[in-house]
Amino acid sequence: MTEGKTIVFFPEATFGPSMNCVGIAQRLREGGHKPVFIADSSFKGVFEKFGFPERMVAMSEPMEEAAASQQWRDFIARHLPNFKLSAVEQIPNYVLECWDEIVNTAVFVEEELGQALGEIQPDLICLDNVVLFPAIKRAGCPWVRIVSCSENEITDPDIPPHLSGCGENDKACFEVFRSRFLECIKPAHERFNAFLESVGERPYPLGQFLETSPTMNLLLYPEQLQFNRRNPLDPARFQYLEGCVREDEPYVLPKFLENNDKPLIYIGSGSMNEADVELNKRQIALLAKLPYRALMSVGNMVDEYGDVPDNVHLEPWLPQPSVIPQVDLVIHHGGNNSFNESLYFGKPAIIMPFCWDGHDNAHRVEDKGYGAQLRRYAWSDEEYASTLERLLNDKAMAARLADVSAHMQKQDGRAKAAGILIDILDQA
Known about the structure:
alpha/beta; Rossmann fold; 2 domains; seven-stranded parallel beta sheet; six-stranded parallel beta sheet; 12 helices; 13% strand; globular
């Protein structure tokens, strides 16, 4: 077996893909290999925390840490009104701005990324992103695509378009979303194709920003929730990982002064939750009246909340893989980490999507009977309370969750991914 090989991970500059890659890298390191992370400068220290070497690259004009943090908060605050819209209504505002920025990063980092790969001389590259970075194809080694968004990022005519939140059989919804998406993102796509041609790459069809890897594509999606495709994915090039839940620091539950013997709810919506103070306050006020305990992750905005009820505990950040096994129900935004972790540990979920693939995951978890979705800002107090009660007492759902949890844990996505990557290295 090949040993001591260097595997570069280049995840999107968000915590979801980054933490998924950490999970796989942990298994590779246990097997004697050397994972190295290339990441945006704003992520300095994130991977070192887990003991991995980092090579920082600038994916945009450099700025001070405080300014970058403020820019992210401003971005979310600016789009909070858009998060009240449906998936198709978000296309000309939030979705379009995201694709513009994604294209900007790909163009900006190309030269430095090529330099970084030349310095490291990897034996294999793992890309967890939604856009092509041509330097990866020119690095002289195999590359693997990791899909840490919802499964429908790999498209098929018979499944809902990525980001759409359409039901599996709602073909009218498919057509409306596809048409509007292609119309709105055309200028960004044309700009991206011009960049591809400038570095000697072929242009992509309208709507495509990343190709599948000719070597291997790893989907973190749970196999038991996969869609029925017209064109089934070839297992020689596509493998489901059933999530890649990382090992994180342990977490000891706090003692609650009220309802300490009642069901425990975890509320976390990733880094986007930080700016949504008003929604969090609304949930806290309602939870104060309900017979539950709640842990809530609120980012750097803890001071905005003042006194909280005795059955609610706030933290800036919580290690989800250590917290979720200890709770009874999860409320989250539909990010793929939270989506997979809830299923992996067999916990019912209420998904209130902001955007992106949260719409897809919310619809899917409800359709398959593993939780429920609520419109992020459209629920009533009665609907929120009754949904909590229903999911916490649904024995049939608990049995389904136990089954999917056992299946996912048996698969051990981290070990499976590491094994696949090692096989690729052996064959190289």
